[in-house]
Amino acid sequence: MSPRKNRRPAPGPKPEAGGGSYWDQSTEEGADGDWIVRTIAGANAVKAYRCPGCDQEIPPGVGHLVVWPADGRGGADDRRHWHRPCWNARGRRTPRIQRSRNAPRY
Cα(73)–Cα(105) distance, rounded to whole angstroms? Predict the structure, then answer.
């Protein structure tokens, strides 16, 4: 007989009787305002999304962040799905400027 393993409960709110899900949610302050940041586990990521930080696809099954303004403006329309490194680097990135092939680089 093997020994019993003690398991820690997952972070986030407790599931409801109907079978809710676990998530980790926090509020972050930044130069661009206050944001609510929710961590999505890879097992719960079932759709593909486009990261606004790198403009690359976040495929299903990959953990990421869902971020929206803390002041509640816009509601669900303002939620964006980000790669964690892209979200952390958003203050250091410059806007990506699309140039034509023959445009000067200066």
Answer: 38
User: What whole-number distance in Å separates Cα of residue 106 and Cα of residue 103?
Assistant: 9
Residues of the chain with pLDDT > 90: what percent? Answer: 38
Q: What is each CA distance from 46 to 1, 20, 58, 61, in whole angstroms?
A: 38, 16, 10, 6
Of 22, 23, 18, nearest to 37 by C-alpha is: 23
> Dihedral sign, CA of 57, 61, 64, 67?
positive
**CA-closest candidate to residue 58, choices 81, 77, 26:** 81
Residue 57 bridge partners (DSSP): 50
**Average pLDDT, stretch 44-73?**
91
Percent of the chain scored above 70 by pLDDT? Answer: 63
